[in-house]
Amino acid sequence: METQKSSCSCGAEGKNRIIYSCSGIGSNVGQLANAAACRLASEGYGGGSCLAGVGGGIEKLVGMGKTADERIVIDGCPVACTKKIMDDKGLLIDHYVLITDLGITKTPGPAYAESDVQTIVNAVKKA
User: Fold this and answer.
1) C-alpha–C-alpha distance, residues 50 and 67, integer Å
2) What is the mean pLDDT of residues 101-116?
3) By C-alpha distance, which of 126, 115, 102, 104 is closest to 35?
4) Are 19 and 74 in contact (CB under 8 A)?
5) Which residues touch 120 (CB under 8 Å, ≥6 apart)?
6) Quick one: average pLDDT of 21-32?
7) Which of 30, 49, 57, 61 has the fewest beta carbons closer than 10 A?
8) Residue-wise DSSP of the chain
9) Mind listing the domains of the chain with CATH numbers?
10) Which pLDDT band, with edges at 50, 70 and 90, does 64 fall under?
11) Beta bridge partners of 27
């Protein structure tokens, strides 16, 4: 199996900005959080990190979060899984976006409206 290395420590103004997102497949907002994080990363706004690895206490991933200049969290719904993982691992949150606070209704299943992705991206950049 081939291992990929991420060399991204990117973000505006040369900041090491890491984006953490919900990715729950059980709802549209989980998938929206992940899609928005992926778009932000592909635009060079910041790099992504494996939230499951952070939650699992993978030392390297937790350490990367602690040394980042900025940590952005995108949660799908008020259950706030991403925020709880960050809090549990002692990782500060510099910018927090809760998708349901943007007027997007949580629905069961992974299908989502593509137009909502840009709404979330805009909210992250505004924060």
Assistant:
1) 15
2) 96
3) 115
4) yes
5) 32, 33, 36, 74, 97, 99, 102, 104
6) 95
7) 57
8) -PPP-------GGG--EEEEE---TTBHHHHHHHHHHHHHHHTTS-EE--HHHHHTT-HHHHHHHHH-SEEEEEESSTT-HHHHHHHHTT---SEEEEGGGGTPPP-BSS---HHHHHHHHHHHHH-
9) 14-126 (3.40.50)
10) very high
11) 108
**Token reading at 125:** 């950049």
% of residues, the chain, pLDDT over 90: 86
Which two tokens mark 77?
């719904």
**Token code pair at residue 104:** 């997007």
The answer to whether residue 114 scores a pLDDT higher than 60 is: yes
CA separation, residue 59 to residues 64, 89, 103 (Å): 9, 10, 36
Average pLDDT estimate for 67-83: 98
- Reported pTM: 0.89
Position with higher pLDDT, 7 vs 28: 28
Cα(100)–Cα(98) distance, rounded to whole angstroms?
A: 6
Picking from 68, 31, 32, the residue whose alpha carbon sits closest to that of residue 47 is 68
Cβ contact 111:28 at 8 Å: yes
